């Protein structure tokens, strides 16, 4: 295995690995999320089935955003009419992310590896690219397949015409992902490729598919990523080209929540204090990180009088 990496341990968790294969005809991205994934779910009570789906979506979104050459964010969204109605991952080009999910009480949450057709029902996969500068792009396709990886591979076939193989695994403690993709033709246009490139991609996909057996899944979920990559591709001219840290970052703040509340006006804020679950308070919970922000009557008056939020921080985690 050739390496061209920063001088630090490649065994550190919460990292993303970019690599090349088959003399540049195939590219790959692998990601391992441990502490950051636990932090993302720390203040949420995700049922095991939701944690599994959402963790797979996070791993997929991080591998996908790493293939893009832009500054901005990628938003991966699954929306359905089944017991899981929404999964959203916002992945930024700096390899930070945040997540949210919605589900109903009818979900059999302790049963893992359920088909996404069962969990989402009729639904839609949306992929949105929001560059800091430039035009926003969104693609919508029906949710197809039985697993998150199959649905995303279908998206690449339909919308990008780019042969892609994804292997994803997650639980409440760890999320991992592997993406293998043919390198686009010159100019990024889809795809006039030599048969040799197709053969290389198929061969490497077969190697990645060994992670889909029961033994392979267990190994993928429990083994550090450099070991996994070496086992799969050490005979295929694997070159690790970049190692990057990944982190969970929400970005919400008391000041931001206060600005949102101030825009509602006095009448709505008074009604919220009167009719909310916590009488006398306006309470807001961040759907991404789970932080709770509470504003009492004095805080509300200060919001309405001032241009910024100045009361002491009463955030509760």
Automatic annotation (TrEMBL):
<dbReference type="GO" id="GO:0042026">
    <property type="term" value="P:protein refolding"/>
</dbReference>
<keyword id="KW-0963">Cytoplasm</keyword>
<protein>
    <submittedName>
        <fullName>Hsp33 protein</fullName>
    </submittedName>
</protein>
<dbReference type="InterPro" id="IPR016154">
    <property type="entry name" value="Heat_shock_Hsp33_C"/>
</dbReference>
<dbReference type="GO" id="GO:0044183">
    <property type="term" value="F:protein folding chaperone"/>
</dbReference>
<dbReference type="GO" id="GO:0051082">
    <property type="term" value="F:unfolded protein binding"/>
</dbReference>
<dbReference type="GO" id="GO:0005737">
    <property type="term" value="C:cytoplasm"/>
</dbReference>
<dbReference type="Pfam" id="PF01430">
    <property type="entry name" value="HSP33"/>
</dbReference>
<keyword id="KW-0862">Zinc</keyword>
<keyword id="KW-1015">Disulfide bond</keyword>
<dbReference type="InterPro" id="IPR000397">
    <property type="entry name" value="Heat_shock_Hsp33"/>
</dbReference>
<dbReference type="InterPro" id="IPR016153">
    <property type="entry name" value="Heat_shock_Hsp33_N"/>
</dbReference>
<keyword id="KW-0143">Chaperone</keyword>
<keyword id="KW-0676">Redox-active center</keyword>
């Amino acid at each position: 295995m050739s390496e061209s990496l920063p001088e630090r341990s490649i065994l550190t968790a919460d990292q993303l690995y970019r690599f090349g294969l088959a003399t540049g005809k195939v590219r790959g991205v692998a990601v391992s999320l441990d502490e950051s994934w636990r932090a993302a779910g720390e203040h949420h009570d995700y049922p095991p089935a939701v944690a599994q789906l959402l963790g797979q979506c996070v791993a997929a979104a991080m591998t996908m955003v790493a293939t893009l050459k832009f500054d901005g964010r990628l938003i991966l969204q699954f929306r359905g009419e089944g017991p899981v109605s929404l999964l959203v991952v916002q992945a930024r080009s700096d390899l930070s992310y945040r997540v949210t999910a919605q589900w109903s009480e009818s979900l059999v949450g302790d049963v893992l590896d359920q088909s996404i057709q069962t969990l989402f029902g009729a639904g839609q996969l949306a992929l949105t690219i929001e560059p800091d500068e430039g035009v926003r792009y969104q693609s919508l396709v029906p949710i197809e397949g039985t697993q998150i990886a199959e649905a995303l591979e279908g998206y690449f076939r339909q919308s990008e015409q780019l042969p892609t193989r994804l292997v994803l695994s997650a639980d409440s403690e760890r999320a991992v992902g592997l993406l293998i993709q043919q390198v686009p033709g010159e100019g990024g246009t889809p795809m006039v490729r030599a048969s040799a490139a197709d053969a290389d991609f198929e061969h490497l996909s077969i190697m990645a598919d060994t992670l889909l057996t029961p033994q392979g899944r267990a190994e993928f979920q429990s083994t550090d990523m450099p070991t996994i990559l070496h086992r799969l591709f050490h005979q295929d001219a694997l070159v690790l080209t970049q190692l990057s840290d990944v982190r969970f970052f929400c970005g919400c703040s008391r000041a931001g929540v206060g600005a949102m509340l101030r825009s509602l006006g006095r009448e709505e804020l008074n009604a919220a204090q009167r009719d909310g679950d916590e009488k006398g308070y306006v309470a807001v919970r961040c759907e991404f990180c789970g932080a709770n922000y509470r504003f009492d009557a004095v805080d509300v008056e200060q919001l309405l009088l001032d241009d910024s939020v100045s009361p002491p921080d009463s955030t509760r985690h």
